[in-house]
Write a structure and sequence with these properties.
The chain has 336 residues and is an alpha/beta fold. It folds into three domains: 3-88, Ubiquitin-like (UB roll) (Roll); 95-194, Elongation Factor Tu (Ef-tu), domain 3, CATH 2.40.30.10; 207-332, 3-Layer(aba) Sandwich (Rossmann fold). Helices cover 20% and strands 31% of the residues. The protein has helices spanning 22-28, 66-71, 173-180, 216-228, 250-259, 283-293, 308-320, and strands spanning 3-8, 13-16, 46-51, 54-56, 73-75, 79-81, 85-88, 101-113, 117-123, 137-141, 148-151, 161-167, 187-194, 207-212, 235-241, 263-269, 301-306, 328-332. The structure holds FE2/S2 (inorganic) cluster. Residues 35-38, 40-45, 62, 75, 77 line the site of FE2/S2 (inorganic) cluster.
Length: 336
């Protein structure tokens, strides 16, 4: 049977399903619990059981000291609740608390999506899950090439399976390598995490997520994290791309919108052929569309990814519509 879990001192609560470890249940519920191996060997997930019963569901190599054991310290990745429990656990509250990690990953899958975007799946060694907060990015190094920043698009609850997106860009060495040379089983070095584009979990305000092109990647992680939290917030997701078919995770967004009353999805395309057939970018129109939909932004949080000029324009326009400066969270895309 399932049991209720309460984390202290945060007071965060969640339900653990039968046979789910406390770590699995907590991560699934969006708690930023520290962990590294998820198999009982590193000790990173040590926490104190304050009340309630647990049972060991996995053997572990890491030895909890006698003094800690007497205090009730256990490994959250190795125990499941046997009753409702209260757990005193450290939760990662800021990016500064996450150590920099360098991990040799292996390509586990390459999946070509609509819009000529490659979904790159990277597996870390089992004992070396990548710790990060939703919205952060990492340096990805491909053989013989300079490292590139890529947003980590997966939920941090599964730090052994990393996900990033690369758009086909002829002439760009990184992109060409991914599309022509990278293969399943290849080693890819991942270093990080970096970035402060993370969710303000204290806020309960409705959120506008505004992505440009592959800038949807960090928003995917943020949206999935927001959905995992107990209190579901109203979310609007505006995703602008060059062409309609460039919404490479369109089905995923539509499935979220179908499943949740709180989630609204607005795909936008920016290309309109001018009289001479040349592209006519309409980023500004996308910003105006958001202000048209929400003329008073004073009660919102906005999370936006895009090129510098577009982000700057949007920030000014949203402020003029009442958005408080500190409620605008931005990630400028350095490369696509
Ligand atoms: S012992 Fe490593 S995460 Fe639990």
């Amino acid at each position: 049977m399932s049991h209720d879990v309460r984390l202290l001192p945060s007071g965060k609560t969640f339900t653990a399903q039968p046979r789910e470890t406390l770590l699995e249940a907590g991560l699934r519920a969006g708690a930023s619990l520290p962990y590294r191996c998820d198999n009982g060997s590193c000790g990173e997930c040590r926490a104190r059981i304050v009340s309630g019963q647990t049972r060991e569901v996995r053997p572990h190599d890491y030895v909890v000291s006698e003094a800690e054991r007497i205090r009730g310290v256990q490994l959250l990745c190795c125990v499941a609740p046997a009753s409702d429990v209260e757990v005193e656990a450290r939760e990662i509250g800021s990016v500064e608390e996450i150590p920099r990690q360098v991990i040799a990953t292996k390509v586990s899958k390459l999946h070509l999506l609509d819009g000529e975007v490659m979904e790159v799946h990277l597996r870390t060694p089992r004992s070396q899950a990548m710790q990060f907060l939703p919205g952060q990015h990492a340096l990805i190094t491909l053989p013989g090439l300079l490292p590139r920043y890529r947003s980590l698009a997966n939920c941090p609850c599964n730090g052994t399976h990393l996900l990033c997106y690369v758009r086909r860009a002829p002439g760009d060495a990184f992109s060409e390598y991914v599309f022509t040379t990278l293969a399943r089983g290849d080693q890819v070095m991942v270093e990080g995490p970096e970035g402060r584009f993370t969710l303000d979990e204290v806020s309960t305000r409705p959120i506008i997520f505004f992505a440009y092109d592959v800038g949807f990647a960090p928003l995917k992680s943020l949206i999935e994290h927001t959905m995992a939290l107990n209190e579901l917030r109203i979310m609007w997701c505006y995703w602008m791309t060059l062409k309609p078919e460039d919404h490479f995770l369109d089905n995923l967004c539509r499935s979220w919108a179908d499943a949740l009353d709180e989630f609204h999805y607005v795909p936008l395309s920016s290309l309109r052929a001018g009289a001479d057939g040349a592209p006519n970018w309409r980023e500004l129109a996308a910003v105006e569309r958001i202000v048209e939909d929400h003329p008073d932004l004073s009660g919102f949080d906005v999370y936006m990814t895009g090129p510098q000029g577009m982000v700057d324009f949007a920030r000014r326009r949203f402020m003029a519509a009442g958005l408080p400066t500190e409620r605008f969270f931005q990630e400028v895309l350095r490369t696509f």
